[in-house]
Amino acid sequence: MKKWIPIASGLLAGFVAATISFADFSAKTNTEAASTTKSDAEKVYVPFGQKDDYYLFASGGHSGQMFIYGVPSMRKIRTIPVFSQDSATGYGFDEHSKKMMGDYTWGDLHHPAFSETKGDYDGKYMFATDVGNSRAAVVDLKTFTTKDIIQVPNTAGPHCAAFVTENTEYMFLPTRFAVPVGQKYESLDNFSDQYRGVMSAVTFNEKNQKLGIAYQVALPPWSYDLSDAGKKSSADWAVMTTYNTEEATTNLEINASQADRDYIVLFNWKELAKMVKEGKYENVGGQKMIYPEKQKGGIYLIPVAKSPHGVDVTPDGKQFIASGKLAPTMTVFSFEKAFEAVKNKDFAGERNGIPILNYKSVMEREVNPENALGPLHTQFDDKGMAYTTMFISSEIVKWNPKTGETLDRVPVQYSPGHSVAAEGDTVAPDGKWIIALNKIAKDSYLSVGPSHPESMQLIDISGKMKVIQSAPVDPEPHYAQMIKADKIKTINVYPKDVKNKDAVYKQSDTKIVRNGNKVDVYGIAMRSKFIFDAKAKRPDVIEVNEGDHVTIHLTNIDFDEDITHGFAINSYNLNMEVQPGQTNTMEFVANKAGTYPLYCTNFCSALHQEMNGYFLVKPKK
Amino acid sequence: MKKWIPIASGLLAGFVAATISFADFSAKTNTEAASTTKSDAEKVYVPFGQKDDYYLFASGGHSGQMFIYGVPSMRKIRTIPVFSQDSATGYGFDEHSKKMMGDYTWGDLHHPAFSETKGDYDGKYMFATDVGNSRAAVVDLKTFTTKDIIQVPNTAGPHCAAFVTENTEYMFLPTRFAVPVGQKYESLDNFSDQYRGVMSAVTFNEKNQKLGIAYQVALPPWSYDLSDAGKKSSADWAVMTTYNTEEATTNLEINASQADRDYIVLFNWKELAKMVKEGKYENVGGQKMIYPEKQKGGIYLIPVAKSPHGVDVTPDGKQFIASGKLAPTMTVFSFEKAFEAVKNKDFAGERNGIPILNYKSVMEREVNPENALGPLHTQFDDKGMAYTTMFISSEIVKWNPKTGETLDRVPVQYSPGHSVAAEGDTVAPDGKWIIALNKIAKDSYLSVGPSHPESMQLIDISGKMKVIQSAPVDPEPHYAQMIKADKIKTINVYPKDVKNKDAVYKQSDTKIVRNGNKVDVYGIAMRSKFIFDAKAKRPDVIEVNEGDHVTIHLTNIDFDEDITHGFAINSYNLNMEVQPGQTNTMEFVANKAGTYPLYCTNFCSALHQEMNGYFLVKPKK
Question: Where are the domains of chain B?
């Protein structure tokens, strides 16, 4: 029997002893597969002419993108490029997106979050963070495109994000890695004194579609992992998990797993905003930084089982559930009790200047389903029941947060990190579906070499839980949110924008303008030709001199849904998309003399192959 | 009734009159959807514990990548990065792939082709070309990774590729765009004299896994579109389509659609190889260039219906079928008759110094299924029956190449470019499945904004043709090949390579070596830590000086299927994957002083979140 031990080293002896072997799971799985009824196929099948009921927005992890799936079919509908280049759309190649991406060509996208109104997904925007290069982004769901990206200073790896407050007042970005404030060089010997885990309060201005940073909080130098905003009576509050409260600086596998308890950080964002208003902050690199050891009253710690991963607020906003990934325990806490403890200063001392609430005063119950190991993250259904992913025992356990009773469990293949329920992070989840976001696929699909795809599994929760579809997915879904399809309202074509000086809608307005060595092209893409200068002998040819600075503005005047054109110049490493009605811009230096075909890269018509011209670069003498 | 006119401008009057409206198709479709039986769902459903029967390798077009799907489930299993950066795997970020990609960060991948043995897919390699930046690539199917990329000089846009000969002797790359030889600057007024459409004969050396160019052919300045190699009795020959034989230099939509006939180019690659051996070539920029007007006997033209797209050789190697995209005709030609015409010099004059075979002597039949418009590409089943995609009438027509009889037809949604049959390009197709590669999805799926996904539709051809699954797909499938799953033999982990000086398999062998301002790290990734120098106080920390040239070699010593680690340095725009057993290298200049967390980006174990360390960059004084 092959032992498959997902945890590390054998040093955490209690855990290894309890680790479920891979062979055991294979056996279980085969039994289940054999009993699969035909109705599962029907449940996930969406015939042509019908559409999926839900959109699933999944983080792409180190792919840097967001991936959109339909549920229940689990078909991938779209990649939204966010933090990484995407030549399919020209993202990172056209001027607008290149500027948004800044100095980076990739990102590590974690934990997408819908904008909310009254605690419900409103279908307008999606937020996400970049753990790789410390950024935040917003995606407009009218066009499924990224509208703004900001660099978040003083932080390294905003993993514990994004979560939005009940009316999208803030999206909070606590960081996974502690760094010296300002990210300056500093010996790790001074870790506890000089390093901090900074949390940022990010705002979104819907009018100009820009993100901003309202303030930051210099939390202790711990790792902040996951988080959730309060709801209803707890709406002014938020919770997050933190590990490495040992403040270890090396071999965290061992050294950050020493203490029996780490913490939940509980904070009141209205109190923090009030502190900022009252000037109770320091200016750090242009940011308003609150130091909680100096400004008391907004932030509290709650002890929680060893190295917690997820913390999730129940739909009614009354409880929050933390899962200790190195202890087989889900702990249910009461917001009401926490508020009481805060009010009564029912503290068990302080850590790093932050009061610790008395565990027993705040904890409602500890839940330990038999042999359920590695609890990570909890979602909810329409009855308020909880579904917790078990990373090590590879299953999802359904249980009642009001009683702690285990109600059902289903094996998943394998090692689920998160799960996502239909409208699962709102005040009113839908029930029906839970999807397990599995980290390991092993032998689930046709082999594609030493590294396998990630895997999502759709679970029907209308009766006894059952996995009814397994879908290999693009790397690497760390989190997802699922929204009712009718909440998303896209536009069909970009409307004419007569104020846009780069746009040209009439063939006769096309032109090539030269100023010194700067050449500006105002062109049109249409089925099935390019027109850069309608008056020229060859309207689909651009001729410049070697060394010219060339800017090409291109407007797609096919105001027809789905008729997208592409624009590439051969050998010039340039490609961009112009969607119906859109104007897009490409800027570069013509540094290679010669004759370069230009062509439409997005199949647009029966004469798409004829949609090409030439880019001629006259050599320097 | 909304008229949806995929072709361009209304100027091709005959075509526009015949264009089928979008509304008409919607109506047909809804009728069909209503009659979908439950068995369709069962046919495409692959429950957990079972696997798909076929791998589908689809070109990614301007995404630059290859996409792997399972059939019949149509689930996407993998992206193989080929011509574009892919941060998920670190492709274009690690040293090996960065060097392979050269100066480019994207490509336009067209027409993947399996390596063949005796005219059958052998499951060993996959080839592809880059229309965007004129390259060719080979993918190793043991690991699903790109092994080599070469730049193809003297050409611009090898669209008419890749097709391999019966035993993978050559892969031919005729080019879509004519350019001056050497791609120098040259007025388009001199197009007919100075421009050429160069074809390259690319070879693959399996021993060192390197591509090479055996010779090139300076064909006339036309656009070469699609191609196929002969089989069995025609194995020494190949055919390709060419359009813009008008040699138009602007507004090709109109000007390249004037002549009633364009050509099939028929050539004998053994004759061409013989010419090279006999020194019958000129040296052009380091390449052996054959000029067909000077070296006769290897290349012939055959007139064919207006602006042909696909040309496809029947499985028995006896016929080839060309589809005239601007004429509603599939023309069946006989190889035997062509060989006779060549032997008897049965010519109808010459074009650009190349003999034209007499159309009537070579043509077997013209096939015009009623109202079938825009024939593009033909695939075959196990009975030798032909399936042709109709771009404009949005359907696939099944017909008998021996008789011309129309046997069946099925509407697809919408505008199929190519189709792919199970083992469809081999001497022995499997039958069972055809997949339509549709260019336009319109309202098929949940809306994701003005631009919609591409769409593939799986057609059961075991009885009357029926679309049984519709799958939105990543952009943009121009071609695909489908292979029996058991032909692909992947490795589970990379084997230990004791000859690799960059690899470190023992913790005690890890080290950080400094030579002047060059720092080489020989490190290990394992569940759940990095070790860069086991003897150091903090083995998971790398400290360098600002400006140092840093090379990090990292070996994943988890020799366990699917246990992949990632490695990123926060804010340094660096990420790469190390698959089980693999050694990978990252090289960069430490140009920013400060404290930067490094971490595993590929979820690997319950303690993945603890798998991090620090990259410290001491500032210059």
Answer: 13-487, 507-618
